[in-house]
């Protein structure tokens, strides 16, 4: 009996060691480093049998089309998960909910077209960094992402990378639920404007990268949006095609007062028009004098034209009244004649009405005519 018990214990230990040492096919596992790598192995899905000791999981450079909650069951210890460059197009509901310790998630260089509203929900709000650079395939993915950032309980997220996605605009309130976000990467997109409520809710944001976009200017509405980021001490605006006309005035003045926050303010330059190319945007504030002079001249000319028009209309009115005064007798005579003519016409209509309404009078009238 004792021998049987010893054999059972021995078998359990062997099985335990084997299970801890097992590694999915075409993957590399290191128990000492708590790391599993499945890199460029032409995988079509997340491999099964990933060891439970895994903390760093790299499944990159494969051909995985979709990911769901069944892909990561039993991986409570994973803190860093990289799924970059896998051609992933769909993220299902609660895909990462089983990763109770997940802090860093990399989905960069994929082709996301469908993201469930709760696709990024993680147990205990553990996720701190989310990398979605070059991951959104089309406009519908941007809409899905906005919904997911609102519904996926990412209140503890601190870093979000959306660079290189060709974004032309950002849906309003897209970051409203990311109250602890500290760094937001929006570089290498095609953003054309910053609107009201674009960054609403980012009260703790420290760094905002808007480099390499298509911003020609930032109107006062957008500048107020940037000013409403109280903790943002690192703003980056370089490599945008700023157009230095009078419309650049609010931005140029704002930059001169915000050099401490805009870290690359000294390097910002005009791209258009050609005669202003490479002129410092800080120096472009001098254009405001010319703009104000032209605006003042235009206002003065407009006011002068209004005064002149008023004088002309007043003079015409006086002439008209003078002509009426000189012809007052003739006008009175014509008015009386018109009144008498109207009275005669009215009496004629009245007589005919009485004739038509009384049959006897109509018969007498017909006999008289005969």
Poorly predicted sequence stretches spanning 5 or more consecutive residues: 4-20
Count of strand segments: 13
Global mean pLDDT: 85
Distance between the termini: 151 Å
CATH topology of the largest domain, by name, is: Leucine-rich repeat, LRR (right-handed beta-alpha superhelix)
| Domain module tally | 2
Radius of gyration: 40 Å
* DSSP summary: helix tally: 7
Looking at the overall shape, the CATH architecture of the largest domain is: Alpha-Beta Horseshoe
What is the fourth-level CATH superfamily of the largest domain?
A: Ribonuclease Inhibitor
Strand order of the largest sheet: 1-2-3-5-7-9-10-11-12-13
Q: How much of the polypeptide forms β-strand, as a percent range?
A: 5-15%
* Derived structural class: alpha/beta
Helix content: 25-40%
Regarding quaternary structure, how should these chains be classified?
A: single chain
> Element order, helices and strands?
HEEEEEEEEEHEEEHEHHHH
Largest sheet: 10 strands, mixed
Envelope shape: elongated
GO biological process, one term: negative regulation of canonical Wnt signaling pathway
Organism: Muraenolepis orangiensis
Protein name: Trophoblast glycoprotein
Keywords: Leucine-rich repeat, Membrane, Repeat, Signal, Transmembrane, Transmembrane helix
